[in-house]
Amino acid sequence: MGYEIGSGVMVGIPGQTYDDLAADIALFRELDLDMIGVGPFIPIRRRPWGVQPERSLRPPVSRSPPTS
Hints:
By secondary structure, the protein is of the alpha+beta class. Helices cover 21% and strands 18% of the residues. It is built from 1 helix and 2 strands. Strands 1-2 form a two-stranded parallel ribbon. Strand 1 (6-11), helix 1 (18-31) and strand 2 (35-40) form a beta-alpha-beta unit.
């Protein structure tokens, strides 16, 4: 029929781990998808997921100045 099948995933959802993301990617491969979209989770403060928990895919923010 000429159809292509795709899916996608948001990265950075509160509580999401690298294992979760790896499982999603493995499922995409198993499903033999033609297209995969990846987008960032952007929190909105006044929504239930607006505050990031301690466990997140985002790298920790360094508050110390860089060393030369």
